[in-house]
Every structure is written in structure tokens, then in C-alpha cells.
Amino acid sequence: MRLTLILLAGLLSLALSGCQKSGLSEAAAATTDAASAAAKKEIPNDVELDPAMLANIKVETVRAESGRSNLGGTGKVQFNEDRTVRILAPLPGQVVDFQARVGDPIQKDQLLFSIKSREVASLVSDYLQSQRDLDLAQKTYNMNKDLFEHQAASRISYQQAENDLAKANTQVARGEEALRVLGIDPKEAVKDGGLRSLVPVRSPMGGTLIERNLTPGQFVPADSTALLTIADLSTVWVLVDVFERDIHLVHVGQKVQVVAAAYPDRRFAASVERISDRVDPDSRTLKVRLLVSNSNLLLKPEMFITSSLELGGGGAAISVPAGAVFTEDGKSYVFAAINDRRFERRPIVAAPDAEGRLRVTSGLRVGDRIVTDGAMLLDYRRKQRQD
Predict the structure, then answer these.
(1) pLDDT below 70 — which residues of the chain?
(2) Which three-class secondary structure string do you get for 178-197?
(3) pLDDT in tens, 234-287
């Protein structure tokens, strides 16, 4: 019996010893597996390329650039509506004395054409009659005044003559104003005995005749139809489309350089005159109106142009191509060169600039060499190293 108990105790001791060793082995294995998994998940921060792969990337040196950058746009030339006038018929009649052609230069106050109208003859006739009435009223007043002063006429007669004179003066003034509105000098109107029937139509500004909707001898109504259109082409408008994401970079008065497709080697000075309040729902753009200097009259309406808006900024700053930057887990990175073959992934802080560039505010220094083309290839090779 005692021998049996000793044997059982020995067997139990061996069993417990085996369990302890098994537990330790399993724990050690688990620790080893965890460390291996962690090592596997740890992706190296640098990558080395062989000469063949180096040929597929582009490396540039980081430089400090001026805080001024540009925002491009495209558009078309239009007339400056603030310097465009449309000539209407002041009254119905027949067009005479018209010889101008589209494209002709026009001077301020230049006679464009005349309109022969019965209404003019009637106005001139009424004006002449008002002058005769005024002459008679003046004589009557003078006579009554003299008689009244010598107590040979009543006060009522004198006051009536005075009132008639005032009315006659008013009628003459009205007649003169009616003629002046039509561009007729009252003194000239009475030279031919009141037979004048022509209304001169003159240009209120200098410019170029850009549209004509009449012919000599044509009868025209006095409505809102423009017979002639004259524009001052020394300045023109250009409407460019700017994406809504960039509109915060644009402001009224901003300097712009404009290049027309017809004159690729010339630059025209311009400025932002107005920014539209409406966003195009399809293109997500806003219209920006530019006022362009066109003193040599080279720019014509409907010409296609490209514009470059000068964006303000602070002093010198680091600006890199957007293609050099990639994001991962919400952070921005570039690949900076350690030597000719090895590159490290470097975190940066960047903000949108213009024309496909990013302004870097942290993470890079002047003189650093970064990959500007092929960054995604390097990141792919870097991640392969974990396998």
C-alpha cells in the first residue's frame, strides 16, 4: 500500500512538471509571435532604389520662392459696357446725311446722321411764334408801364401786361429747351425762317462704330431700337471662370496679365473689376470680370484669352508641386533624399497654393532635395519591405 502511494505521488509530480513546461512554452511562443507580428507591421521609413528605378523618378532642390504666385484662367474679350453707347432716334423721321461705316473711328460730338422730321418743323414753328409773342408782350408791357407811371392806365392793366410778359418768356424758354434736347441750337433754328426740319444726331463720346442698324433714307421710329453702337475700345472686358475653391484668392483691384491666342507673345495689363455673386451649378465656377488696357486696339470682342492673376502673399516661402506630396491617414508626406539612392518619408504641413502647387509651412528647408515625380512609386517600394 505504501509503495502504491509513493508511485502515485511520483506520477503526479511528473504531470505537474509537464504542465508547467507546456505553459511556459506556449507563453514564450505567444510572445515570439506577437513580436514577429509587430515587426512585420513596422514599415520602414526609408527606401533605397537601384539605378534602374532611379531613372523613373525626378528629384528637385527645394528653394525659397517669392510670396507672390499666380492663378490661371480662360475667357473671352467683350466690350466695356461702361464705355459703350447705343444711339437711338430722338423722334420718328427719315435718316439723312449718314456716311459712317462699321469700324470707323468716331470723335466726341461728331455728327453721325440727321433725321428729317415734321415734328421738328412744328417745334421750330412754335418756337418762332413764341418769340413773336414775347416781342409783342414786351412792347405791351413797356407801354402799360409808361401809362401806369403817368396815371393814364389802371393798375390792373399794368399787372395783366406784366403777367403776359412772364408767360411769354416761359413759352420761349420751353421752346428753346425742346430744341436743345434734340441737339438743335435755337439761334440756328431761326436762321432759315423756321423752315428747319432736320435733327442732328451726334456722338456723346469718342470711340469706334461697332454696329449699324440703319441705311440712308430709312424711316426710323422713336423707340428703344439702337441705330448705331459706339464703343471706346481703349479698354475691354474679359470674363474668366474661376473655380469656387480658388475664389478666396481673388479680390477687386487685383493685378492681372492677359495673353490673347492671337498674340501669344504679348501681355496686356489688366485688373479685377468685379466678382460674380453666382456660382455655376454645373461647372462650380464664378465669373470674374477683368478690365484690360487695350490702347493699341489689338484685342477684339470674342477673342480667346488666358489670364494670370497675381496672388498676394507674405515674404519668401517654400512652394512644391502638388505631385510631390501624398497623404496617408490624413497626414501629408514627401520623400526627401538622404543620398543619391536612399530616400526617407518626411511629414510636412502644406496648404493649397495656385496652379497645381502647395505651400509648405513645416517639414522642409531650403536646400532639401525631394522627389517631385514618382513619390507613389517610392511609397509602394517602401511598403514592400515589410514582407
Answers:
(1) 1-42, 66-70, 192-196, 310-316, 352-356, 386-387
(2) HHHHCCCCHHHHCCCCCCCC
(3) 999 999 888 888 888 888 998 888 888 888 888 899 999 999 999 999 888 899
Domain locations along the chain: 46-67+316-384, 71-80+233-311, 90-117+197-231, 118-195
CA nearest to 294, candidates 75, 83, 109? 83
For residues 295 and 311, the answer to whether their CB atoms sit within 8 Å is: no
pLDDT of residue 311: 63
The third-level CATH classification (topology) of the domain covering 71-80+233-311 is Elongation Factor Tu (Ef-tu); domain 3 (2.40.30)
The CATH class of 46-67+316-384 is: mainly beta
- Return the SS3 of 94: strand
Residues 6+ away with beta carbon under 8 Å from 57? 49, 371, 373, 374, 375, 377, 378
pTM for this entry: 0.56
Name, in order, each residue with C-beta under 8 angstroms of 264's C-beta and a sequence gap of 6 or more: none
Q: Which residues contact 370 (CB under 8 A, 6 or more apart)?
A: 59, 60, 62, 320, 324, 334, 335, 336, 337, 364
* CATH number, span 90-117+197-231: 2.40.50.100
Per-residue model confidence as pLDDT tens digits over 199-219: 888 999 999 999 999 988 999
Cα distance between residue 250 and residue 259, in whole Å: 19
Select from 171, 165, 164 the least CA-distant residue to 186. Answer: 171
Q: 15-22, long-range: CB within 8 Å, 24+ apart, which pairs?
A: none
